[in-house]
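pipeline stage [seq->struct] | target=Hydrogenase expression/formation protein HypE | organism=Catenulispora subtropica | residues=353
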Amino acid sequence: MTASPLSVSCPAPVAETEHVLLGHGSGGLLSAELLRDVILPAFGPAAEPDRPLEDAAVVRLPAAEVVMSTDSFVVDPLFFPGGDIGSLAVHGTVNDLAMMGAVPRALAVAFIVEEGFGLDELARVSRSLGRAADAAGVRVVTGDTKVVGRGAADRLFITTTGLGVRLPAARPSAGRVRPGDVLLLSGPIGLHGVTIMSTRSGLGFETEVGSDSQPLHHVVAAAVAAGGDAVHALRDPTRGGVASALNELAAASGAGVVVEETALPVPEPVAAACDLLGLDVLHVANEGCLLAFVAPERADAVLAAMRSCPESAGAVRIGRAVAEHPGRVVVRTGIGAERVLDMLVGEQLPRIC
């Protein structure tokens, strides 16, 4: 008798427990453990373990719900096809706000610059950041710059904090995924991770690939306008890729998730790179697509609305939430077999964002 794929487990690697590893920044299992065991307990009731862990926080004010998020960017290389650390810092934080149904209003930007970093490069990054903010309709209102000694950082790090106002009809949350929900994906996956890897390692793919880094708040606004409260959960699959994002949502909601492998939009250069290097494309980072769980009665309308936006013209259905295997994610292959899709463990592609 063949064992069910859900009953099979593989031994996990023995993890270092006294020092920070590169894998703690992967967005996978080690990242989740670091947050759960080391960082979140220090923040008190706002980070209670039974509350869903989101990419941004909602602050309720008398006139509106204000959403805040903060993120740090340490990508290597600083410049890559399709973007750079400046535009990435804007898009990453804007998208974290958008995943909570918010329209971005303001950004705070902090630079940590290593002594010896070229002023021309710093100006280039700053201009790119400014252009990206302007294109997204968000203002950089405050910030800070620190310079550290040679060897104390790796050229340039950027931290951005974003402030947004939640759309009145928006209520997306990691804990709201329900069995029966349709899983939508706004566009191709794997582009950012493969672009960074190719640029860093000089792999020289025959077909040039570029990062998908872009703001997604217009896509979210269209989805919410079409689906309202039926848009149950949103998540941008950045570090750790689609696999880690879906596992986070499944764990927070208690629902199971089934992904149809044949429905995944994977560009040919990305598929070729993953085959060559032995990577699972579902673990590869993205910076310009989102996952949405939508109640079935509004899924077609939300999908049509997403396809009307240039940022998500290639949106597709890729799966659904189910009552079976609660908290777990399963991929159904083209031949009908199933495999468990776990979170990324360790560091697959270091310094991806």
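stage status: PASS
auto-comment: The radius of gyration is 20 Å. The domain at 174-340 is CATH 3.90.650.10 (Phosphoribosyl-aminoimidazole Synthetase; Chain A, domain 2).
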